[in-house]
Amino acid sequence: MAYRKGEDSVKKANIVTAAAIFLLSLYLFKLSYSFPPSLQQYMPGPGFWPRVILVCLMGLCIILFCRGLMQKNDIKINWNLRHVMPVFILGAAYLATIELAGYFAVTVLLIAAMLLFLGFRNWKLITALSAGWIITVYLIFVRLLGIPLN
Amino acid sequence: MENSISDLALNSIIAVFQIKNILMIIFGISAGILLGALPGIGASTALAIFLPLTYSLPVGSSVLLLCSIYTGAEYGGSISAIAIRAPGTGGAAATLIDGYPLTQQGLPGKALGASLYASVVGGLFSAVVLALFTPPLAALGLRFGPPEMFALAVFGVAVIASLASQAPLKGFLSAFLGFLFATAGIDQFVGFSRFTFNQSALFGGIPAIPAMIGLFALAEAFRMVESKVIAEKNFEINKVSLAMLTLKEFRGLLKPTFRGSVIGTIVGIIPGIGTSVASFFAYDDARRTSKKPEEFGKGSLEGVAAPEAANNAVVGGALIPMLALGIPGSASVAMLMGTLIMNDVVPGPFFFEKNPDLSFLIFTGNFVCNLVLLLVGYFSVKVCIRALDVPKEVLATFIMAVSFLGAYAHGNNHSDMVIMFCFGIVGWAFGKMEIPVVPCIIAMLLGEMVESNFLSSILISHGDYLVFFKRPITTVLLLLSVATFVYSVIKDRQLASRLRKNEIDA
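Structure tokens for the assembled complex are given below, as produced in the milestone run.
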């Protein structure tokens, strides 16, 4: 199956995901043995239930991993990272700056940046939508519902 | 002093018809119809978007708002299905089979009229069943001990995981990840903080509400950003309005609407099956029992009414196991359950004993939601058709903004936004890899209850780990859970073989 740039396969994704979750589960399983024992007679400690879940998870990952390796047919995944990655970066930048500059200031920038990135060039519309959002949120959440957003 | 049922019912009617609650219902129905009509949004995303509005509302008003959004969204999906052949919700997929041909024949109003009438009847039917059957089921649940509740929750999650996608193994993977996420935070028996990595934000566990907003709403915004599909319309907006049915048409739809209501209610009670299956069952049933089966697929009003009755009946049906046993059967009901838990109200067998007023408020509110749907639905069609013109880019931007707002307003907490964002990326990636998110979120909600009942069972049996196999109900439920898993493995393998065969044939 030929892949263009940005494309991948479900088979590969299954194998990688199963392996990644298995390794994470193994690490957490080992970590769970550092939890203290139970304080009550008959009761297992706080690590018991997570270990049950992690063993089931690792078992599932093994099945999925083997199923992935044996899989002959495949389906393409188009990750579209070129479209989505900038949005992830915008989101991360938003999270990094919101505590410094406050919700309202940074959200105006987020909305404007998103609309610009997605192809809008109508500045009046961008301004109207950004300002409209901030005013609506302020009136509904801060004034009407009394939820602080600073 | 205990209130009598008639007092509780009367108080609930008075409470529902308070101005603020009626306005909440009208707003919820309107918003639900609008968002449900937009292809790709769906009831669960609509609920995730409006979840932030419930943070400072009393629990009763919050539940009324979310129930009305859920009800509205299930009807709203039929508007785009009939008008532009793009179902707004999964439950409307069967509606378009006959709904769109009616539009092509110049009768979109009739189709929309049949859809509204059937949705209201389906919703009212399941609201009555909800009120009648939930208390006895909860009473049955009271006789369940910790082993039975543990086994029931495990079975519920197993069914949901196996039905959530075409690859059931991935459903189980999603469910166990949800259980794993639920273990983070301070353990309830010893008070030790597990998997928090010294992050104070995780001491209380991974908060379910921001996780749900991320998995449903933000992930959908990411998908919209990359999607270039624009829905097509092939008629003028100003020519579409709802048309009244004639008396003959109305009578002709009674049977398929009633049968669809019954099917939808039953399907709604069973966790994991969902509205799309209910609507197709109802469609198929209507076709087989119709006096004019040859009209199906070419514009039969019965083919519109039956699935629409079913998908709205699912709403009331799905509330039954959630309220009576604490088992949410779908993502939408999981949101409702999350809201209750956020307000320190725990659904389950003790819900009615501890919260009689709230129980009756939900019953009455669900009934009134469907009456309001009849009024609001009539006027909402043109608005919804216009809303389909909103570019996906604008929609994606505002869904993203709402998601961040929802997470931030939840606890005025930056870490909730980070968690929501991470779950948004996870939800988007899961969608790419065909891993369903519904089992994950339901397992996250049930995880603490499952662990607590498991450990309580061990404690009351003095350390006997075989206690689960010494009680008949527990044994049956756990064996059914294992059977569901084995069936999923086999089905997964059969699917892989079928795909391989198709490739060879091609």
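The first strand of chain B starts at residue 185 and ends at 186. Residues 5-505 of chain B form one domain. Further analysis is deferred to the final report.
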